Amino acid sequence: MEPLDVAVIVGSTRDGRFGPVVAKWFARQASEHGEFRVDVIDLADANLPAALSGRPTPEVAAVSERLEKADAFVVVTPEYNHSYPASLKTLLDWHGTQWQAKPVAFVSYGGLSGGLRAVEHLRPVFAELHAVTIRETVSFHSAWSQFDDQGELINPDGPTAAAKALLDQLAWWAHSLRDARRVRPYAS
Description:
Blueprint: E1 4-10, H1 19-33, E2 36-42, H2 43-46, H3 58-69, E3 72-78, H4 86-94, E4 103-110, H5 116-128, E5 132-141, H6 157-183
Parallel strand pairs: 1-2, 1-3, 3-4, 4-5
Helix pairs in contact: 1-6
Pfam family, one: FMN_red
Organism: Amycolatopsis thermoflava
GO molecular function: FMN binding; oxidoreductase activity
């Protein structure tokens, strides 16, 4: 079966952010799953303009191409003030058709809530963009205490099982929706 292209999006752009640690761990899980080719899109490197001019810059075009190629998405998001970061909103607002009829999964991290409030705010936004969010998530409560200094999980069993469940579900949706788009192109 043809591999699936998954874009793992690192949503935080803050100085001192923890997102790359979580994203690196998850990207490894996705690569080892066996059904995915992984492309990590780090919004800190994307340099997307905050002002939405309607005229895409070369930076927007570069990200657009990568999103278009993806069969599925995994958004790695922290929780900032009970929601998701502005950098993710900027990414979403610059892109429309790239999300359509494709599945989106979430890996979140934060304090007590583990970033889950950010995920719940993202679900209706992706619905508006005609994407399908999947139920399974991976959530890290007090994430900085769950990883060692080398970025490895201290107790990997639970998160690894959650990642497998997420990736299994994401693969099912990605195959199904890719096949459907080939048979009948999606029209919003």
